[in-house]
Amino acid sequence: MPEKKRRNEVIEGFLLTREWRSTRDGIALTFWLATPEGPVCVRVPPHEDVMFVRRDTATRDGRRRRVGLTSLEGQPVDAVYFRSRRDLVAEAERLRSVGAAALESDGKPDARYLMERFVTGGMRVRGAVHDHGTFRDVIATDIETAEVTPKLS
After folding, report:
1. What are phi and psi of 23, to 5 degrees?
2. Is residue 129 within 8 Å of 9, Cβ to Cβ?
3. Within 13 Å and on the Cβ side, how many CA atoms surround 77?
4. Residue 127 belongs to what H/E stretch?
5. How far is CA 64 from the centre of its chain?
6. How far does Cα 35 stand from its chain's mean position?
């Protein structure tokens, strides 16, 4: 069956699996959904992984940015962004070795992405859709939570 042209679309489905991987361009996420029309593979373009450090903590690696957040103790924190999970883990371990806190460094990128969007099962995806016949592939431009009741076999 010939592949159909990509088109922008909104798809609602129920999350079945999720995965992340480091690429040279950043952290790539893949989610598989069950939809009434069949399986959908959702790909999130590569982006940066993140952890937080107290504002007075010196970091050696990553791109640091001030954010309007505080630790559980009420101390202001900065976000530190990394293009690879390996670099984030190395910096978090280095910080812990000198007695500094690396906040939220243990959360997996796929779990963080879904949690920040309040996705626990059902999701609404906007993006470019490519129909492969047996499944659809979506390059996501937006993902949000949705009320979806799956019909699984």
Report:
1. -125, 175
2. yes
3. 18
4. strand 122-131
5. 19
6. 21
Give φ, ψ of 112 to 5 degrees.
-60, -45
- List phi, psi (to 5°) of 61: -130, 160
Q: Residues 38-66: pLDDT tens digits?
A: 999 999 999 999 999 999 999 999 999 99
Looking at residues 98-113, what average pLDDT do you find? 94
C-alpha–C-alpha distance, residues 29 and 18, integer Å = 7
Contacts of 48 (CB under 8 A, 6+ apart): 26, 27, 63, 81, 82, 83
CB 49 within 8 A of CB 105: no
- Whether the pLDDT of residue 136 is over 80: the answer is yes
Alpha-carbon dihedral angle through residues 54, 60, 63, 67, given to the nearest 10 degrees? 10
- pTM for the full model? 0.85
What are 86-101's pLDDT values in tens digits?
A: 999 999 999 999 999 9
Question: Cα separation of 87 and 102, whole Å?
Answer: 13
